[in-house]
Amino acid sequence: MNNGQALVDLGQLEEGLAQVPLQLRVQSTRRYSLNVQSRNNGRLRLGSTEWYVPYQLSLGGQSAALGTGQADISSPPTNGLTRSSLPVQFRISDPSGQRAGVYSDVITISVAPQ
């Protein structure tokens, strides 16, 4: 973690759930919403080419549909101080037939009170 940024290595891309032990921790005294944005609309991109591998992102078991570039997720109701550790999971679509190389995306997660 560096200045609120994390570099997440998904390893060699294979279809299915990427084995990445990653959590988003949120501390709040009221309900909150998470806004998730993907620079490549939920696709890992090979450099500046037009080669992509789609993926799905979920936070705390809630899917974030990134096909439009962003998604919103709401927290459950809360009374008082709540500390949440939300597992972050990446489900990779079939990468076969794609060029070899380093694929990436930039994801921004914002937390706001409701």
List the total number of helices: 0
User: What's the domain count?
Assistant: 1
Question: Which fold name corresponds to the CATH topology?
Answer: Immunoglobulin-like
What is the chain-wise order of helices and strands? EEEEEEEEEE
Roughly what is the average pLDDT, rounded to an integer? 92
Topology diagram in text:
Blueprint: E1 16-17, E2 23-28, E3 32-38, E4 43-46, E5 52-59, E6 62-64, E7 70-74, E8 82-92, E9 103-104, E10 107-113
Antiparallel strand pairs: 1-8, 2-8, 3-7, 3-10, 4-5, 4-9, 5-6, 5-8
Q: How do you describe this structure in short?
A:
The protein has no helices and ten strands.
Could you describe the 3D structure shown?
This protein is an all-beta fold and 114 residues long. The chain has a single domain (16-113), classed as Immunoglobulin-like (Sandwich). The chain is built from no helices and ten strands. Strands 1, 2, 4, 5, 6, 8 and 9 form a seven-stranded antiparallel β-sheet that branches. Strand 5 (52-59) and strand 6 form a beta hairpin.
Identify the notable features of this structure and list them briefly.
single chain, 114 residues, mainly beta, Immunoglobulin-like, three-stranded antiparallel β-sheet, 0% helix
